[in-house]
Amino acid sequence: MLKRLNITGPNGAGKSHLAARLAAVRPDVPVISFDAMKLTSHWRQRSRALIEADLSRAVQADSWIIEGGPSLLPFAINRADSVMWMDPPEWLRAWRLIARPLRNIGRTRKELPQGNVDWPWQQYKFAMRSIRNRAAFRTKISAQLAANPGLRVWRIRNSADVSSAIDEWRGAVDGVDPWALS
Questions:
Q1: Does the CA dihedral 123-125-129-132 come out positive or negative?
Q2: What SS3 state is found at 18?
Q3: What pTM was computed for the model?
Q4: pLDDT tens by residue, 81-105
Q5: Which residues form a coiled coil (predicted)?
Q6: In whole angstroms, how far apart are CA 95 and each of 30, 68, 106, 169, 176?
Q7: Residue 134 vs residues 50, 52, 53, 94, 131: alpha-carbon distances, Å
Q8: If you placed Cys at 9, which of 5, 13, 108, 138 could pair as Cys (CB 3.0 to 4.6 Å)?
């Protein structure tokens, strides 16, 4: 049964949105936002020691959906039974990274701690760095997945992949092995 899921990918890939959709079909599995764990307010990060201690405690639970970028993988992948790798086309990511700060201007997104307000200029500088690092993100994710065989891995590139992953996640309830259904 799939019950410990790591959703990974670069900024703007749709990780938080997918986590919310997966939680809606399996509300018994809590969602953990790595960004919420890392940040205090005004986009300041907590100390690495505090982040790692909280993350270590969180992944010891019996079930979870944890979403975050490639830097999360080394901490969560050893306890995960599955990984959803969000890898949309670059144009879609760029569009999301442009639209997100405008959609949330002056507000804190629901997956973040209060006080982390989206302002376009600040977010656009961050987005540009993220887009330039696409190859590095893919390399990090690929290496972590290769080093951890036996995981159920979805590489999600489009809406059909999202639907398929959600259907399989939904079917992984009550001990049903979704891989045995075919």
A1: positive
A2: helix
A3: 0.85
A4: 999 999 999 899 888 888 887 887 8
A5: none
A6: 29, 19, 19, 27, 38
A7: 28, 25, 28, 11, 6
A8: 13
